[in-house]
Amino acid sequence: MSRSGPVTAPSALPGEVIRRLREAETVCALTGAGVSAESGIPTFRGSEGIWAKYDFRRLATPEGFMSDPCLVWEWYQLRQVEIAKAAPNRAHLALAEMEASLPSFTLVTQNIDGMHRRAGNSRVVELHGNIWRMRCTRDGTVSDIDGPVRDIPPFCACGSLMRPDVVWFGEQLPRAEVERSSEAAASCDLMLVVGTSAVVYPAAALPIIAKNSGALVVEVNAEPTDVSTYSDATLIGPAGTLLPEIWRMMGYPERFMK
Ligand code: OAD
Fold it and tell me: Which end is more exposed in the chain, N or C (fewer Cβ atoms within 10 Å of the end residue's Cβ)?
């Protein structure tokens, strides 16, 4: 199939891409921070991104945590406050409609904000953990957090320090989630790659797995990325506008999106 250059509206996609979008039954979506940008949650890279303001070595590595757990928890508390105030946007809602309507839909996310579940998705593979959970540094016991943490740092009932249940730089991703996401990528007939710079592995390998397995790979991003070099189509623009448009293009009515 011939590849299309970046376009800004699904209606500008080549007919063959549109046909394959409409025929898709087994869909996998890979999302990154860009899907939550329109909810007011900042992305990581770029001049306005989190890593331009904060030092990831102090805040998002096991070494940073061990040297100053209070600083790390204070930063996660700030992020929890920001995320708690935010609401799912139309990109999240479109992905929830996809799960509700398609024969098979798996959502793989690098985001830790929990917004996909809030929007209604239940088949969510969280590759980098979830900011609404914490984990005992001694025995790995995981507990849910129902709002921004109050006591910093939090301790487990066993007396050990708790850490956010997220994946930091230099850490392994959870094995079960990696397997589920690889299987979904290898078996889908459409992969949507939404709002990720696709520079962090192994998540960035998933669209390549999908492509090599014969899936149609459609990227939605505010700007071109490495994925654009091999995707079948790249749509440039806000995910909150483009995903509902793609959904209509796939032949589905918007049922509960406002
Ligand atoms: P990035 O911040 O690297 O990339 C966000 C992408 O979203 C960029 O390509 C933006 O162009 C795009 N974007 C921004 N607003 C958008 C919008 N409204 N609609 C569509 N696209 C938009 O975030 P991730 O790729 O998610 O890991 O980063 C991957 C991982 O690196 C994160 O999970 C995190 C980070 O460091 C860890 O903390 C381990």
Answer: C
| pLDDT tens for each residue of 206-245 | 999 999 999 999 999 999 999 999 999 999 999 999 999 9
**Residue type at 167 in one-letter notation:** V
Mutate which of 45, 58, 93, 236 for ligand 1? The one with the most ligand atoms within 8 Å of its CB, which is 45
Instruction: Report the distance separating Cα 23 and Cα 108, nearest Å.
Output: 21
Distance (Å, whole) CA 82 – CA 85:
5
| CB 89 less than 6 A from any atom of ligand 1 | no
Residue with tokens 């070595």: 57
Q: Is the CB of 235 under 6 A from ligand 1?
A: no
71: pLDDT strictly greater than 90 = yes
- Quote the ligand 1 centre to 153 CA distance (angstroms): 28
Q: What is the pLDDT of residue 256?
A: 66
In angstroms, rounded to a whole number, what is the distance separating the alpha carbons of residues 124 and 71? 30
Q: What is the DSSP letter of 4?
A: P
Q: Is the pLDDT of residue 1 over 80?
A: no
Give helix 15-23 / helix 239-249 axis angle, nearest 10°. 80
